[in-house]
């Protein structure tokens, strides 16, 4: 059955265009692996182990990890404290993916059939610094002519068995979009570690964008205040590091802080166009919000978009500018889901202005009732247009709390197929 897009109200007024500041690039801090204590309960032996897998808006659930063999040692060192740096020289922006142009397709008339067989036959093989090889939360940039030697750059976070202390943003690169590895010279995690792991304080939710020839990596910091409250219940802080070669990165700079109680900034999307940063992120109410800034420090009041999740809440998302305007993929969890991590599916929508969106179309769902590696949830994805194809890199979780990143691709959204599927 065909689904017809429904386009909503007129576009919101555009923000005033001002200058943009870039980061100072410095030598990378030595990345060190955090200590794992019995309180963190990461499975390190063949015995079954428990670990927390639930964000704090839901009742805490104990997760039992099945017995299996995993790496047995993780180096213990001191965490790295984020340091604020001062932004300096304005630069000209280049965008690695297709630039947005005047919309030539009438979004009112667009017709999309939901794709089928979009679950990949097997996940991508991505090795992580912690040794568990369970990557999550991809953001991929594509460069037709390459950037510092590679055509594809991915930011992601390890998330083995939902262990927060290891969820620190990392980089991988690829020449073909299928085979991924750490770029020569990089030390993952490129962000280092938060000042403390107390009360599950951690980094998460990376996003990549280009500012001229400088790559910017934005990510979320979930702080602890030593009051016993889980860090995911605290305010959301957005940090940024920058690099001109993908190897040497600036120290962390704080750009944004959401002071609303129990309302962190979930999975920020950031674009830089004509000297203005625009950021979208989800809140715990399940809606998507937009804000803009000319300097990445002073932000306009939040504007609520009309993007909605069918029978559920928007949770994590990615968006790119194309000839249609904006194209977004987002995961959403239905009402009554087991947790913030369970039962999510992936959807697609489009917009002319980043505020008013078409009706979402389901593109990937978990393979419930099977023994597939993605049988529990489909999580944060990244949408890329490369070599004449849509490529959707999506993360997934199994009922055993094992995380993977997979790929589906096609010439259109309707023709998407999972990697390895006919």
Strand and helix layout:
Elements: E1 3-4, E2 49-52, E3 62-65, E4 111-112, E5 135-147, E6 150-158, E7 170-174, E8 202-211, E9 214-222, E10 236-243, E11 253-258, E12 266-273, E13 276-282, E14 288-293, E15 303-304, E16 312-322, E17 325-334, E18 345-351, E19 361-364, E20 377-386, E21 389-397, E22 403-410, E23 417-418
Antiparallel strand pairs: 1-4, 2-3, 5-6, 6-7, 8-9, 9-10, 10-11, 12-13, 13-14, 14-15, 16-17, 17-18, 18-19, 20-21, 21-22, 22-23
Describe what this molecule looks like in 3D:
- β22 and β23 (417-418) form a beta hairpin.
- 0% of the residues lie in helices and 37% in strands.
- The protein has 422 residues and is mainly beta.
- The chain is built from no helices and 23 strands.
- It has a 4-stranded antiparallel sheet, with no helix packed on it. A 4-stranded antiparallel sheet has the order 12-13-14-15, with no helix packed on it. It has a 4-stranded antiparallel sheet with strand order 16-17-18-19, with no helix packed on it.
- The chain is globular.
List keywords for this structure.
single chain; mainly beta; four-stranded antiparallel beta sheet; 37% strand; globular
The beta-strand count equals 23
What structural class do the secondary elements suggest? mainly beta
Q: Secondary-structure element sequence? A: EEEEEEEEEEEEEEEEEEEEEEE
In terms of DSSP E residues, the strand content is 35-45%
> What order do the strands of the largest sheet run in, or round the barrel if closed?
8-9-10-11
What is the residue-averaged pLDDT?
80
Our count of helices gives: 0
Radius of gyration: 20 Å
**Overall geometry:** globular
Oligomer: single chain
pLDDT < 50 runs, ≥5 residues: 1-22, 25-94
Distance between the termini: 21 Å
Helix share bin: under 10%
